[in-house]
TrEMBL record:
Stored InterPro entries: AAA+_ATPase, ABC1_TM_dom, ABC1_TM_sf, ABC_transporter-like_ATP-bd, ABC_transporter-like_CS, P-loop_NTPase, Type_1_exporter
Primary location: membrane
Name recorded for this polypeptide: Metal ABC transporter permease
GO cellular component: plasma membrane
Organism of origin: Hyphococcus luteus
């Protein structure tokens, strides 16, 4: 390749990399800017003042020492300040002490604002994760999302810490030292300092690039490892029952091994960098002292000057090293932040977290209309095809059919967890695509197929999300869902902690908590997706009766495999492979002798042979 063109490409590459980095820092700053309040800014400003003061004192301390030595060694006072030794000693000690105090103040002020920003940033990230659509969460591992957020926060802390503690003081110290050297000493020392500084910059720039690359890999590996960790912990019941402890530990260790090797690359990059710096430092120190020695011997320099140049050479390493460390660790922080910024770029659901004006009628039982709705989760695999039906206000409609037929998907579309590929869904005549999801969901109470509870008290879980001030309502809802017997038995009653995802409760108890929660909502549409599938027949019958009373006047959509629970429905829609194959009342459908009749027959036959076999025959 032509050398000039390759050079040009190199330049273009550099310019591109620079503008990319600029874009990154703008994006990263845009995330925290709205979170900074006046107090944060004031604390930062005060920390900044301490940094400037501390750095100036650190740089000027050796000057006082030089003056003291010159005075003590009887050398002609070449300086303008003819101060007595005690004053000079006090100045030197004072500069050292004050610089330490400024450093402590800086840490105190910075720590307070860092924690405030970290809290606000964590809250913002969590709120964002909560506002992301269900589609996002179903496609991601919980542990990976958690680690991405954790890495991001750590990244911000690294960047903030180094901006305040390393980059800034480093720059100020170098500036002041260069000024003093230029004013007081032979310019040759400035040249040595400058040569060392240039070499440092090259070595650090190279190191920072390598460390950044290694940090990216570390960040990705940490996320993968945490995804495995959370997956194992969440599935511990399956792990135990299938004695899979060793298998999941191995699976987790495989990701840990990758993370370990990425960390090794990271530390190797840092090590190589550190060794190069040590060589430059030793070379610079040797050159300075050799030049200083010759000048002291020839009388061109005082002993104080020699001490000053030595102190600066030792001291200049620190700010330069700090600068390098700062750049390197900011690179690491940036790599950690990158993934989090990608997550923040994920679009939240429209209207999520915001208060949006509601559209359409505000009360009364809902009318739900499906108009030629077609839907697939992934291209090429259609789940619902040309679905058209209407659920009349105040009616009870049942959705039945074989497993995987698309019943829960109908519910997800009504909730706007997903949008249809074609056709539309209307809520009281208003297309739900025009209703903000958060508004729409306020009108609907859903008892989902899989109930997973918060690791909190029974009362919290029933009253979720508005726990405070509804104690009586919670007790009433618990009683409606036949939970009072259980609560009486528990030593802590409503305050009993239900365990992670409600694991300390039985499947049926969890379902009843979900029913109680939904019944508190006073919705316009009540949806029960297999809400009583884990209950024994008698409890189920009692709850169904209670629900019928509670849902009187509310439009109700019930998905059920156990057909005995929906014989009284006003309308039964039979779905098969995403299409409506039959529709009518229980008696009509039986008389028709189609899919519904055969499902019914299978269940009643099973029931005749034993009640437990009657469960889930739709599967
Ligand atoms: N998040 C998803 N991503 C991809 N495919 C999905 C997703 N959820 C469900 N499916 C698929 O969509 C189809 C319909 O699922 P759906 O849960 O709506 O059926 P269902 O009638 O409620 O089944 P069941 O009675 O077993 O609960 C199934 O083939 C299922 O594998």
């Amino acid at each position: 390749m032509h050398p000039v063109s390759s050079k040009r490409r190199g330049l273009t590459h550099l310019v591109e990399a620079h503008s990319k980095q600029k874009g990154f820092f703008n994006r990263a700053f845009a995330v925290i800017r709205p979170e900074l309040d006046r107090l944060d800014v004031a604390r930062f400003a005060a920390a900044f003042a301490c940094v400037v003061l501390g750095a100036a004192l650190t740089a000027l301390g050796p000057v006082a020492l030089k003056l003291l030595i010159d005075t003590l060694s009887g050398g002609a006072p070449t300086h303008m300040l003819a101060l007595d030794p005690l004053t000079l000693l006090a100045l030197y000690v004072g500069a050292q002490g004050a610089s330490r105090v400024a450093s402590e103040m800086r840490m105190f002020l910075f720590g307070a604002s860092e924690q405030s920003i970290t809290r606000k940033l964590s809250r913002k990230l969590f709120a964002h994760a909560m506002a992301l659509p269900l589609r996002f969460h179903l496609a991601r591992a919980t542990g990976a999302v958690a680690q991405t957020l954790e890495n991001g926060i750590q990244g911000y802390r690294l960047v903030m810490q180094h901006a305040v503690f390393t980059l800034l003081p480093g720059l100020i110290e170098i500036l002041i030292m260069s000024l003093v050297v230029a004013l007081v000493l032979d310019p040759v020392f400035l040249a040595v300092f400058a040569a060392c500084a240039v070499l440092y910059i090259f070595v650090f720039a190279d190191g920072a690039r390598k460390v950044l690359r290694a940090s990216r890999s570390v960040s990705a590996a940490r996320i993968d490892a945490n995804a495995q960790l959370a997956d194992g912990l969440l599935n511990f019941e399956a792990v135990k029952s299938f004695t899979g402890e060793a298998a999941v530990t191995r699976r987790y260790d495989d990701t840990l091994k990758i993370a370990q090797s990425r960390w090794r690359d990271f530390y190797r990059a840092r090590f190589v960098n550190g060794i190069a710096i040590a060589f430059i430092f030793s070379g610079g120190l040797a050159a300075t002292l050799w030049l200083g020695l010759a000048r002291v011997q020839s009388g061109a320099m005082s002993v104080g000057d020699f001490v000053l140049v030595n102190a600066y050479m030792l001291q200049i390493v620190r700010p330069l090293e700090l600068l390098g460390l700062g750049v390197r660790d900011i690179g690491q922080g940036a790599a950690f932040i990158e993934r989090m910024l990608d997550l923040l770029d994920e679009k939240p659901e429209s209207g999520a977290g915001a208060s949006v004006p509601a559209i359409g009628p505000q009360e009364g039982p809902a009318r739900i209309t499906f108009e030629h709705v077609t839907f697939s989760y992934h291209e090429g695999r259609r789940v619902l095809t040309d679905l058209s039906f209407e659920i009349a206000p105040g009616s009870m409609t049942a959705l039945v059919g074989s497993s995987g037929g698309g019943k829960s998907s109908v519910v997800r579309l009504i909730m706007r967890f997903y949008d249809p590929d074609a056709g539309r869904i209307l809520f009281d005549g208003v297309p739900i695509a025009e209703i903000p999801p958060t508004e729409l969901r306020k009108w609907i109470a859903l008892v989902p197929q899989d109930t997973s509870l918060f690791n909190d008290s029974l009362a919290y879980n029933i009253g979720f999300p508005e726990y405070d001030g509804v104690q009586d309502d919670i007790a009433r809802a618990a009683s409606l869902a036949n939970l009072d017997g259980l609560i009486d038995k528990l030593p802590d009653g409503f305050d009993t902690i239900v365990g992670e995802r409600g694991l300390k409760l039985s499947g049926g108890e969890k379902q009843r908590v979900a029913i109680a929660r939904a019944s508190l909502k006073q919705p316009r549409l009540f949806i029960a997706d297999e809400a009583t599938s884990s209950l024994d027949s008698r409890t189920e019958a009692e709850i169904v009766d209670n629900l019928a009373i509670a849902a009187r006047g509310v439009t109700t959509l019930v998905i059920a495999h156990r057909l005995s629970t929906i014989v009284k429905a006003d309308d039964i829609i039979v779905l098969d492979q995403g299409r409506i194959v039959e529709r009518g009342r229980h008696g009509d459908l039986l008389a028709r002798g189609g899919l519904y009749a055969s499902l019914w027959r299978a269940q009643t036959d099973d029931a005749a042979h034993g009640p437990d076999r009657a469960r889930g025959t739709g599967a």
